[in-house]
Amino acid sequence: MPLRIVFCGTPAFAVPTLRHLIAQPDFQVVRVVTQPDRPRGRGHETASSAVKNAAIEAHIAVFQPGKIKSDAAFDYFREIAPDVVIIIAYGQIIPARLIEIPRLGWINLHASLLPKYRGAAPINWAIVNGETRTGLTTMLIDAGLDTGPILLTHAADIGPDITAPQLTFLLAEWGAQLIAKTVRGLDGGTITPTPQDNSQATFAPPLKKEDGRIDWSLDARTIYNRIRGLQPWPGAFTSLLGKRCNIWGMPLFSEGLEEGLKSTFGTDPRTNGTIVALGSEVLVSCGNGTWLQLEFVQIEGRKRVTPREFASGVRLTSGERFGS
Asked: Which site from 1, 10, 39, 213 is most exposed, i.e. has the minimal number of CB atoms within 10 Å?
């Protein structure tokens, strides 16, 4: 008999695992649980989650409780009595009485090597913090926030230029195989849950809009990490002439040019954020005498443009600074 699975998740990150489980002959995804449809986008039109759309495509019944702690949700899970629940980025804390229903428990896929980066945005904060290594963890959920015992892990490098959306895509694909391997191992008794070392825990809180504001006193590599890690939202942004500007750029690695800029502008913190147009290139002074080379700029209410188009459009004057 196939293992009867309830799949619980919401965003696109969870979809590869759902589709992989559906395709396995030894598994039967009997229900999908996801967040209620909500207004999204500029038009605030009601939209379904990525997981719901994938479930409908596969002709699997969907349950969308407003609160997973409700009596209705408890009755729903108790009636189905699944062998295991797979939960990936669902968006609500699961109460203890639901955790006790499936015989194999609730298996969570988390996008970090726990106990590092517990919380809602592990991929983003790992990149922002300049990590070079991350991965995936499967664990049995408990009453805490990503504190349950570890089942399996999959380590992965973080490339120096990879963005959060790119890393999210890769981890989502790898996670599908890891979940399947975990379910089979747990059911077959070949996996022993291992408690987390809470003393090594770090946290990845939900992203806030203000997290994207650029501090030009930081060095260019640190700013670049924020640009990579905070895509697509909130993005990395600053201000110019009273308007918000979203910024894309890379640290400047041209040693001769960098030395010339240092000799011209120095490393005085008062110059941080200074914009320098050099032909088709636009550079911004950062902390520790470093420079960010702009790739694109988007002023609020306008389209994204190249640095040259930006410099021409705002008519840069000598000493103009971002963040002022």
From this structure: 1
